[in-house]
User: Fold this.
Amino acid sequence: MQKKQTWIDYYNMEAHPEGGYFHQVLKSDETFERENQSPTALYTSIYFLLTDSNPSRFHRLTSDEIWYYHYGNPLTVHMITPEGEYQQVYLGTDIEKGQVLQAVVPKNTIFGSTVEEKDGYSLVGCMVSPGFKFEDFELFERQVLLEKYPEHKEIITRLTTEEK
Assistant:
């Protein structure tokens, strides 16, 4: 298996504020106007590399995000729906274990991702439509989520920090 640093170096990935490493590979030339906002690309796409010690922390987008498994260890996408329901999706190649090659995280869903294998990593692609903009990105502090969803304390504690 390729070493994680090989992917990080090859794609010139940088640290993402939610965790992991990313590199934007596609951004639509077509845009549209949202009220009181700068023009928004129809879609954006990144390569995203996560490790067992550097997960994607709980955050929320105002757009749908499609995740595509590419390489490495399986990845678990943890979601809290707007109704407060906890769900998981497993990205990977082992269909007998319920893994899928791609999955959608609906807009306004709180989500984060983990690699469960010790010293493991996962390389995925993430496509956001309408396109990703940091002004549409919300990273959560632990206490905010614990107050709203105390029944999900274990995963909230794992995928948040005390401060943003």
Observations:
- The chain has one domain: 4-156.
- The chain has three helices and 13 strands.
